[in-house]
């Protein structure tokens, strides 16, 4: 990957894929004067996010939240109820949004660009400059692999034959399951579990590790576990799956739970056990493009693969696997391919969100990661019980945790568990990126009765007991 390759002016960039990374690369390449051929196969144009990921899941999560809150609000003197009168109607409205955004944000965006050609078909690399598709051979100056990722299914006996749901097919159901077993305990599993539970399914989560979201801060995941269980979701950890079978009444899962045999039953089974890069069958080896043990394309800091002139971006290169990082990488890879490796990936201040309720969000390092890098840190964790906005909304679930460098007072990371807590991440991301001291966050104006005041109060907590401050006091 050390050999530098630069496309000529008015070059031809061939992009394999049709999602956010592919489209960001296409638009950047056109801006730089190149022509683009985009070869897409599998999901419709738009890729995972708009078709089967972010867009459909988040609108359904909002629908489930509206239904849940109507029957579970905290205000005295107000009686309200809700029922799911037409599950098909809920899903149809979701699909209308998907199709509308696919058209407006993808197809229409390139419709008038003469420099862009879209071919539907499966691409096979012949070499580092040649791709075969639909019986024809296409030559390009530069290649970009942006084929995304798909659900990864564990090799549990009987699972492949059972007719299980994935995160894709679960969002296509026309009938609400009466009961649902969910294999997995990370962000996709948790988001969909709560969504189906709030719409009326009886949900049980079966997680292999000792807790859900095992790579995140324990105090956050323990609290989230409690909130989900309070809504009636069963969470079983330490699960070693042994077999799956389907009977007339539904699915039967046998397992060992903390070493003891257990059996679980439900009408539907959702396998939400991670995702794998879409690299099989592309012929990457013919172009000299290496993949790692997980099947992800190996790239350097410029997103160039092990083959000069061949780049890769998005979920196909592994973590982080977000639509906004895929778009960032697609544009960066295209510019490097056309201008000669001038840009490097930088995820120093990358915010992320898990759309449960309350949401889990974060940016930067947690305290363990910081200490592993030799940074001496102080941490504070502010309960939402001290945030006026949460008190007024009568929803004080969660906390805001800040991690700062003890010597410089610079923020190195944050973790948030709060309703709409994701809205706090950008202030914290900018503080990390531009080195704003925590003391400055504490002194900055934050409008009273906004959730953003939680950042100010957390920053103050390093030096003061906020329980002893008056409203708006510093």
Account of the 3D structure:
- The protein is 29% helix and 24% strand.
- α1 packs parallel to α7.
- It has three domains: 204 residues, FAD/NAD(P)-binding domain; 105 residues, FAD/NAD(P)-binding domain, CATH 3.50.50.60; 118 residues, Enolase-like, domain 1 (2-Layer Sandwich).
- The protein has twelve helices and 22 strands.
- By secondary structure, it is of the alpha/beta class.
- A hairpin with a 4-residue loop joins β18 and β19.
- It has a five-stranded parallel β-sheet with strand order 3-2-1-7-17, with helices on one face. A five-stranded antiparallel β-sheet has the order 18-19-22-21-20, with helices on both faces.
What amount of the residues lies in strands?
15-25%
Question: What integer value in Å does the Rg equal?
Answer: 24 Å
Assigned CATH superfamily of the largest domain: FAD/NAD(P)-binding domain
Largest sheet: 5 strands, parallel
**Broad structural category:** alpha/beta
Shape: globular
The residue-averaged pLDDT reads: 96
End-to-end CA span: 52 Å
If helices are DSSP runs of H or I spanning 4 or more residues, what is the number of helices? 12
Secondary-structure blueprint of this entry?
Layout (H helix, E strand, L loop, with lengths): L11 E5 L3 H12 L3 E6 L6 H6 L1 H18 L15 H24 L5 E5 L3 E4 L2 E4 L2 E4 L2 E4 L3 E3 L27 E5 L3 H13 L2 E5 L11 H13 L3 E3 L2 E9 L2 E8 L2 E7 L1 E4 L3 E3 L32 E3 L10 H17 L11 E4 L4 E6 L2 H6 L4 E7 L4 H6 L5 E7 L5 E8 L6 H9 L4 H6 L9 H8 L14
Parallel strand pairs: 1-2, 1-7, 2-3, 7-17, 9-10, 9-15, 10-11
Antiparallel strand pairs: 4-5, 5-6, 8-16, 12-13, 13-14, 18-19, 19-22, 20-21, 21-22
Helix pairs in contact: 1-7, 3-4, 3-5
């Amino acid at each position: 990957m050390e050999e530098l390759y630069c496309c000529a002016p008015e070059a031809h960039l061939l992009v394999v894929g049709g999602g956010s990374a592919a489209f960001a690369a296409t638009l950047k390449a056109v801006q730089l004067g190149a022509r683009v051929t985009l070869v897409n196969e599998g999901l419709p144009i738009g890729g995972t996010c708009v078709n089967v990921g972010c867009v459909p899941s988040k609108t359904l999560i909002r629908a489930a939240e509206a239904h849940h809150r109507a029957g579970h609000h905290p205000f005295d003197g107000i009686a309200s109820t809700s029922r799911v009168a037409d599950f098909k109607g809920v899903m149809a409205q979701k699909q209308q949004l998907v199709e509308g955004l696919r058209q407006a944000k993808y197809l229409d965006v390139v419709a008038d660009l003469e420099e862009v050609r879209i071919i539907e078909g499966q691409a096979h690399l012949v070499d580092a400059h040649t791709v075969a598709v639909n019986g024809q051979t296409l030559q390009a100056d530069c290649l970009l692999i942006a084929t995304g990722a798909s659900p990864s299914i564990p090799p549990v006996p009987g699972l492949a034959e059972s007719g299980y749901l994935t995160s894709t097919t679960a969002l296509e159901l026309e009938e609400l399951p009466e009961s649902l077993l969910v294999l997995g305990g990370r962000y996709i599993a948790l988001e969909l579990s709560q969504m189906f539970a709030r719409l009326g399914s009886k949900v049980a989560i079966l997680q292999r590790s000792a807790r859900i979201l095992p790579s995140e801060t324990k105090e956050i995941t323990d609290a989230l576990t409690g909130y989900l269980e309070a809504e009636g979701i069963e969470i079983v950890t330490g699960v070693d799956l042994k077999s799956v079978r389907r009977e007339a009444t539904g699915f039967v899962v046998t397992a060992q739970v903390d070493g003891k045999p257990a059996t679980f039953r439900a009408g539907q089974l959702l396998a939400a056990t991670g995702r794998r890069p879409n690299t099989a069958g592309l012929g990457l080896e013919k172009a000299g493009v290496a993949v790692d043990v997980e099947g992800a394309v190996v790239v350097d800091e410029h997103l160039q693969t092990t083959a000069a002139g061949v780049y890769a971006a998005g979920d196909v290169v592994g973590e982080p696997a977000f639509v906004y990082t895929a778009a960032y990488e697609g544009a960066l890879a295209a510019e490097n391919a056309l201008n000669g490796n001038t840009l490097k990936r930088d995820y120093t201040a990358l915010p992320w969100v898990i759309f449960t309720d309350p949401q889990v969000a974060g940016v930067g390092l947690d305290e363990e990661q910081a200490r592993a890098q030799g940074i001496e840190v102080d941490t504070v964790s502010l309960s939402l019980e001290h945030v006026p906005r949460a008190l007024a909304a009568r929803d004080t679930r969660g906390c805001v945790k800040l991690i700062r460098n003890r010597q410089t007072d610079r923020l190195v990371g944050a973790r948030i568990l709060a309703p709409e807590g994701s809205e706090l991440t950008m202030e914290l991301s900018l503080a990390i990126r531009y080195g704003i001291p925590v003391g400055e966050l504490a002194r900055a104006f934050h409008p009273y009765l906004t959730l953003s005041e939680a950042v100010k109060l957390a920053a103050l907590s390093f030096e003061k007991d906020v329980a002893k401050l008056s409203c708006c006091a510093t």
